[in-house]
UniProtKB/TrEMBL annotation:
It catalyses: CMP + ATP = CDP + ADP; dCMP + ATP = dCDP + ADP. The keyword Kinase applies. It comes from Buchnera aphidicola (Acyrthosiphon lactucae). It holds the Pfam family Cytidylate_kin. Keywords: ATP-binding, Kinase, Nucleotide-binding, Transferase. This is (d)CMP kinase. Its EC number is 2.7.4.25. InterPro entries: Cytidylate_kinase_dom, P-loop_NTPase.
Amino acid sequence: MINKIPVITIDGPSGVGKSTLSKIIAKKLNWSLLESGKIYRLIAFLALNNNIAIVENNIVNLLKNLDCWLIKKKLLIIFIIYKT
């Protein structure tokens, strides 16, 4: 059986309130929220702190070496451990 999880995507330029709108919608619908921008910033942080040049092949290898756990609370929390 396939679980169908409803998804809403919101796109737009920086600083226009996408995250604010997403939080309001998630709260009203009692849904989890995944803020992809935070994931992108975390990956960049991990790459820079491990002296990994930000090029596609290096980022793919970095992602292959991540352990991720998703814990559903009020919002979606992501725990990531980089295996060095």
